[in-house]
Write a structure and sequence with these properties.
- The chain is of the alpha+beta class.
- The chain has 2 domains: 59-157; 160-278, Tick-borne Encephalitis virus Glycoprotein, domain 1 (Sandwich), CATH 2.60.98.
- Helices cover 49% and strands 23% of the residues.
- The protein contains 2 helices and 10 strands; from the N terminus they run αββαββββββββ.
- It has helices at residues 25-157, 176-185; strands at residues 159-162, 168-172, 189-196, 202-204, 207-215, 220-227, 230-238, 243-245, 254-262, 265-272.
- A 4-stranded antiparallel sheet has the order 3-10-9-8, covered by helices on one side.
- Strand 9 (254-262) and strand 10 (265-272) form a beta hairpin.
- The chain is elongated, with a radius of gyration of 69 Å.
Length: 289
């Protein structure tokens, strides 16, 4: 019989039993949760501070807005009160303006009525004046006709004679009345003079006259005439005699007529062609040649 050899018994090592202690990730989880909780607390606290700050700012802005709105409301109320007062004044002024306008209309109507009455009076007076003017005009025309006839008669009475230079003179005046008539006819320019015998000449129109001798008994006189730098002596001239002389510009002779001789005094006139006075002569020293 065979025997089966027996193997010696060996004791095999058993694996260690699992430990029943706390896993390592649990503390880490608690730390994470703790940190997260702290962060949340801090975040809530910070958010509360920000919120409170915003609330405070908002309250401040609301307060400022309330103050501004209150000021605007006060200003608006003041303006409304002022507008009400002005409206009251404007209404009073409007009433006054209406009363004034009514008074002006009444005055205008009264003035218009008075003006119409005055216009009627003026028309009546004008018609009367026109009638009177027509009458006066008729009388004036009659007077003009009479004057014209008188002038024609005067022209026949005024004399024409030959002057001392042998040139036919125009009409000669023998007194102031006839001289006025000659001036009115307007055929020549006339300059009346009343000059005395003296050592110096007197200006008469465009010339200078110096009386050197007067003979009342024989109605004669001597004089010097200065014209255009020339001194001309006129001797033994008689009453009403045309004393003639020429100038370079005059188309006809200038004439001196003496119609009154007094003691050392001559009264008469100078007659020149028309516009001769505009050509004033240049005079020299009376002692020149």
């Amino acid at each position: 019989m065979s025997t089966t050899p027996t193997r010696p018994e060996t004791t095999e090592a058993q694996p260690p039993a699992p430990s029943l202690g706390t896993p390592r990730w649990i503390p880490i989880l608690f730390v994470i949760l703790f940190l997260f909780g702290g962060y949340m607390v801090y975040a809530n606290y910070h958010s509360g501070q920000v919120f409170n700050k915003q609330v405070a700012q908002t309250n401040s802005r609301i307060a400022q807005l309330d103050s501004s709105l209150q000021a605007q409301a006060d200003d608006l109320k003041a303006e409304l009160d002022l507008t009400s007062q002005k409206l009251g004044i404007t209404q009073a002024q409007l009433e006054e303006a209406r009363r004034t306008s009514a008074a002006l209309r009444r005055e205008q109507a009264l003035s218009s009525k008075k003006l119409q009455e005055q216009i009627g009076q003026v028309q009546q007076q004008t018609q009367a004046s026109v009638g009177q003017l027509s009458t006066e005009l008729g009388g004036t025309q009659s007077d003009l006709a009479t004057t014209k006839a008188s002038l024609n008669d005067t022209r026949t009475k005024l004399e024409s004679t030959v002057g001392d230079m042998g040139v036919m003179s125009g009409l000669i005046a023998h007194n102031q009345t006839q001289l006025n008539q000659l001036i009115h006819l307007g055929q020549r320019d006339y300059y009346k003079f009343d000059i005395y015998r003296a050592k110096h000449p007197d200006r008469v129109g465009p010339i200078m006259i110096q009386v050197s001798h007067v003979d009342v008994k024989h109605w004669r006189y001597n004089m010097y005439v200065t014209v255009e730098d020339k001194r001309i002596e006129k001797k033994d001239k008689t009453l009403y005699e045309p004393v003639q002389f020429y100038t370079a510009e005059a188309p006809a002779p200038l004439e001196i007529v003496v119609f009154q001789i007094k003691k050392n005094e001559l009264v008469g006139y100078l007659s020149t062609p028309k516009d001769q006075a505009k050509q004033a002569a240049t005079t020299t020293d009376p002692g020149g040649s």
